[in-house]
Each structure stands twice: as C-alpha cells, then as structure tokens.
Amino acid sequence: MGDIKHDETNFYSNAEDYWREIPATVDGMLGGYGSISSIDINGSKTFLKKFLGEGEGKTGTSCALDCGAGIGRITKRLLLPLFTTVDLVDVTQEFLDKAKSYLGEEAKRVGHYFCSGLQDFVPEAGRYDVIWIQWVIGHLTDSHLVEFLRRCQKAIKPNGLIIIKDNVSYEGVVPDEVDSSVCRDLAIVRSLVATAGLRIIHEEQQVDFPKEIYQVHTLALR
Q: How many domains does the chain have?
C-alpha cells in the first residue's frame, strides 16, 4: 500500500504546480471559459436565494466561506452581494493576493484570506451561514473530501448550508491528468456526502452551459 501515499502526495503537488502557472484572471479560473461566468453566477444566485432570509429554517447572511476561491470571482459576484462578511480559502497565494485588488472597494468586507489546500483546512466551528465549494472537490481524494465535509458540518451555524457546485461525469471517476483532478459521477458524489453524515436538501443541474463541457450540478447539504 506504500504507493498510495506517494500517489496522493503527487496528486496534490501536481495540482498546486498546475495552478501556479495559471494566470490570475477570471478566464484562468474558468479554464478559458470566462464567458460562462455570468450564467454560472446567475444560476448560483437563484439557487442560493431559495434558502436565505429571515424566519423558520432560513439560512442567515452574516458570513460565508468561498472554498477554492481563486481570485475571488464567486466572492465578488455571488457572496459579497449577499453576505456581510466572506472568507476565502485557496491553495495558491498569488490568487489570494490578486483577490485583494480584484474585489476592489468591497475587499474590506473580507474576513480572512486562508492559503491552504482543503485537505488541510479546518474552518472555524460555528462561523459560517454558507460554505460554498465550487469546482474544487475534484482536487480532493474521496477520504479527504469526506473529512473536509465533516469539518464543514462543524463550521456551519444551526441553519447553515454547505453547497457543492461541480462537474459530474456520466459514469464513474474520470481523471484529468492536466490539472491533477478527478470528475466523479453524481451517484459517487451523493454517496460521499452520505458518508460524511450530510443530507442533500436540494439539488439542481446548471442550465445553459456549453454542450462540450461536463454537466454541472449544485447540491445543498446540511
């Protein structure tokens, strides 16, 4: 079994190497698909707004966490307009540095910039209303994803939500050698969520994305 540890180390270090070479731009964050950013954000906003607000069972809007935040594309256009404070976590320091200027005047409402891979990141207990995890679960091994989701569960407030938005494959696990990630099918993602002790309270497919890219699904978890 010695190889697995070695392979796991490479899996993470190769991804870090990949992102280190990517330009700190929206197009870089989206692998050349910068044009889909608005469709993505609008879909996410419609999804998220179903849960936010005052009253029984509603999710608050004081603090959100953007996981795999990059330069803060989602923070800027989705989270900061809806939440009082947003924290960012990303493995690439250069992206977080760029976020400070990219977010502009609103950067003053960022609580923390954490430079860490999610496999090592421990979010503060009870801090977040929403933890947003987009286009990054493929960079975690199954066991690290389950462990991270368990840590997220401790980090959300009583009516808080964990949201995963990501590519799903048609069947099985499809490796991407280029950025050292994997794409899992929906059944696998659901089973990992269940293993983490979370339940899916709502699930949708993102519409109007280019036909040639993977389907993207959004899952709200508690």
A: 1
Q: Is 134 one of the annotated binding-site residues? A: yes
- What's the residue count for the chain? 222
90 is in an annotated binding site: yes
CB 43 within 8 A of CB 207: yes
Distances from the Cα of 170 to the Cα of 40, 176, 180, 196, angstroms? 20, 15, 19, 23
Please tell me the distance from the alpha carbon of residue 151 to that of residue 162, in angstroms, as a whole number: 11
Segment 99-156, tens digit of pLDDT: 999 999 999 999 999 999 999 999 999 999 999 999 999 999 999 999 999 999 999 9
Task: State if pTM tops 0.70.
Answer: yes
Ligand-binding site membership of 153 (annotated): no
Task: State yes or no: 184 annotated in a binding site.
Answer: no
Buried b (16+ CB within 10 A) or exposed e, 21-32: ebebebebbbee
Residue 118 assigned ligand-binding role: yes
CATH classification of the domain holding 118? 3.40.50.150
- Host domain of residue 108: 2-221
Report whether 68 belongs to an annotated binding site: yes
Q: Which two tokens stand for residue 134?
A: 């987009």
Find out whether 43 is annotated in a ligand binding site.
Answer: no
Residue with tokens 């002790």: 197
